[in-house]
Amino acid sequence: MSELEEIRVGTCENSRMHKEITKLFHDRHIHIKEFFPGQKVLLYDIRLHPFPGRLRSCWTDPFIIFDVFSHCAIVIQDLTRGMHFKVNGQRLKPFLEPSAKEREVECLMLY
Description:
The chain is α+β, with helices and mostly antiparallel strands.
């Protein structure tokens, strides 16, 4: 009977170690992002598209952050419709606006 008990304890220990390693692997891929109200962000589009296209971006229009909660929930405002909705902070990334210098286009005349 003691052999069965030892096997059970060893199995429980292996299971606990496996759970810890899996948690460490999962937590390593979570990126903590800091957001604040008024910041512009892009929202990741999770809808399935039958033919997504190779050059089509998965990130949609810039939104404005309206409110930030402590549990990674963020209320964003759609600029076009003015609607507010709550999303997970992992689905957002900061929107980097191009500077005035980057917006300038140099035009060359070829003859």
